[in-house]
Amino acid sequence: MAVPKKRKSKQKSRQGKAGKAPLTILKSTPCPNCGAQTLPHRICGNCGHYNGRVHSLKAIPEEKQA
Ligand SMILES: [Zn+2]
């Protein structure tokens, strides 16, 4: 059985996979906190909420930041 001589780098293997991958359209979901369209499993860019919690300092008023 043929054995690869050298390990393929992450970049090279990903380049090969990227050529075969179908182009997908990014789906967006409304944020449960503010209703803005956000990507699923990402922090909301508008209010900084994810999974019911604030994850971004942008969402907290500056006087409350410590
Ligand atoms: Zn939001």
- The helix count comes to 1
Bound molecules: zinc ion
**What is the molecular shape?**
elongated
The strand order across the widest sheet is 1-2
Give the overall pLDDT as a whole number. Answer: 84
Biggest sheet layout: 2 strands, antiparallel
**Category by helix and strand content:** alpha+beta
Radius of gyration: 20 Å
Low-pLDDT residue intervals, each spanning 5 or more residues: none
Strand percent estimate: 5-15%
Number of strands: 4
Distance between the termini: 62 Å
Helix % is 10-25%
Order of helices and strands: HEEEE
Description:
The protein has 66 residues and is of the alpha+beta class. It has a domain of 41 residues. 17% of the residues lie in helices and 12% in strands. It has 1 helix and 4 strands, in the order H-E-E-E-E. Strands 1-2 form a two-stranded antiparallel ribbon. The protein is elongated and about 65 Å long. It starts with 9 loop residues before the first helix and ends in a 12-residue tail after the last strand. The relative contact order is 0.11. The model has no long low-confidence stretch (mean pLDDT 84). Zinc ion (ZN) binds next to loops.
